[in-house]
Amino acid sequence: MKRIFALILVALVAIALFAGLMHAVLVAAQVSEPAAITVPGLTPRRLWATTAAVLALVGVVLGGLALARPTSRFSAASGRLGAIVPLVAGLIAVVNGGLNLAVANGGPGTGNGVVGAAGALVLGLIGMVLGGLALTRSGRTG
Fold first, then answer.
1. Which residues contact 27 (CB under 8 A, 6 or more apart)?
2. DSSP-derived 3-state class of residue 7
3. pLDDT at 64
4. What is the 3-state secondary structure (H, E, C) of 19-87?
5. Can you tell me the distance from the alpha carbon of 104 to that of 47, in angstroms, rounded to the nearest whole number?
6. What is the spatial distance between Cα 71 and Cα 138, in angstroms, rounded to a whole number?
7. How far apart are CA 84 and CA 4, in angstroms?
């Protein structure tokens, strides 16, 4: 029971930290004000931001696997590939999220994909950190 409570508490803290980091990115990019008139549907910039966010999420998952499972396909023990893939995926997501935020001319709801771009930026940085840690570990074990 204590372990479940601790996991729920850690998950809530992680979600709050992620939301706070996303808000900080939107404020830093000066696109945190919501639009007066929202654009419904999938726009090209929303698709771009969503793709970058999905790539960043893949980088985070693979980076977590590289750290958590030392004998899996994507791990520090499987060579440097298991650590380099999340590092590169995170880098691509950070660059695309940053570019999307740089060309955005409005806040959430304008169809520019700023929320997805902020998520891609934050998740990409997390994926890069996890990939870097796994790469460091693979250097020690290799």
1. none
2. helix
3. 87
4. HHHHHHHHHHCCCCCCCCCCCCCCCHHHHHHHHHHHHHHHHHHHHHHHHHCCCCCCCCCCCCHHHHHHH
5. 14
6. 12
7. 33
Residue pair 76/67 in contact by the 8 Å Cβ criterion:
yes
Letter string b/e over residues 34-43, b meaning 16 or more CB atoms within 10 A of that residue's CB: eeeeeeeeee
Residue 137 identity: R
| Mean predicted confidence (pLDDT) in 87-97 | 95
d(CA 122, CA 15): 12
Q: What is the mean pLDDT of residues 16-40?
A: 85
Number of C-alpha atoms within 13 angstroms, CB side, residue 60? 16
Confidence of residue 95 (pLDDT cuts 50, 70, 90): very high
